Amino acid sequence: MTAVIEPRWKPHRVGLRNVWEYDEQELHFADGRMILRGRNGSGKSNALALIFPFLIDGSMGSASMDPFGGNGGRSMKSLLLGVLRDDERSGYRHNKRLGYVWMEFTKVDSESGEAQFHTIGCGANASSDSSPSSWFFSTGRRVGSDFDLAPNNVPRTRGQLIDVLDRASVFESKEEYRRVVARDVLGLAPEQLVKLVTLVRALRKPQLAGKLDLEELSAVLSSGLPEVSENKLDDIAASLDNIGRIQGDLAAVNNTRTLINAFLPVYRRYLDSEVRQRVSSTLLAEADRTSRVAEREKRQSEHRSLGTQIASLRRDLEAARSERRTIDGQHAGLMKSDRYRDAQSLEEKEHSASRLERAAASTSRTAKAFAEELSLAKQAAERSAAELQQAQSEVDHALVRASDAG
Q: How confident is the model at residue 162 (pLDDT cuts 50, 70, 90)?
């Protein structure tokens, strides 16, 4: 299963050593979350007070560790030594005690995909007749795997812890420790961490949700919030001063909106007309484009067909040229042969005979014409002779009649 890449640290486990009734206790988180269950007085509140927010800011006073507050409340001294009753004046179970509280965080490296770990913690030493002393640590090493806080069940002193880790990982000041935790674990500025812890302590006050007093809830939330800076107050005051101008601007905007609402119907009609006209033009252009595309495809098809025909004709032409070259070669060879010369002589004789036949035909036609003209002349001569003979006969008759009359 592929590990989910987490960009931030999550609580993984927490340990309590020689604190309150815990000789050695390790608690585990599930995906950064943990639920503490048990009957009243089982130590849930004490465990929670030692884990969060104590391990984040390192404040060990009763006002920080006990949600009820007050000098007689829960403190690191009372948790280390263990009170016999609920107030410290009744005595302690231990006269002197050294203990540790630590928390381990984990995340998956975005480059290697491997789990990374970081451990923070607090060591404290208290006695019944003195105030507790404390030291803190922050390291990339793991408790139990890389180092032990209580070898042979004897908790390490501050100096021994420095020898195991290094001086840069151990802090005497809670302010320095808080700065390192805010930077390396939470990714916050120190002042942001202080504001966050203050708000958490305010929200963890007992019976806050049960009473549901809105005024008290508002007061609790307000007490947990940081004070507003002077710069922000100045900005708020300036904003209040600008309310009149903003109201004037709002009136102008409303007036503009009224004018726009009155103008919109006319403009919508104009837009509808313009859109219809442009859609019509677009449809006509699209139809023309479709027609031109079809015509172009037809021309392209004809062009491809003509190309095919031209290619076929070129092949035919090339074949004809090849055949002609073959025939020309055969013809040249034939003209050089004896048979061609004899055929040529025969052809010349045929041409001469043809010319004689044409001349004979022409002479025949001329003789026939002359014969026709001669026949016509003979017919004309015969008619003239007949006419002359008739005339002579008439003269002879006339002479006879004349003689008879004389």
A: very high
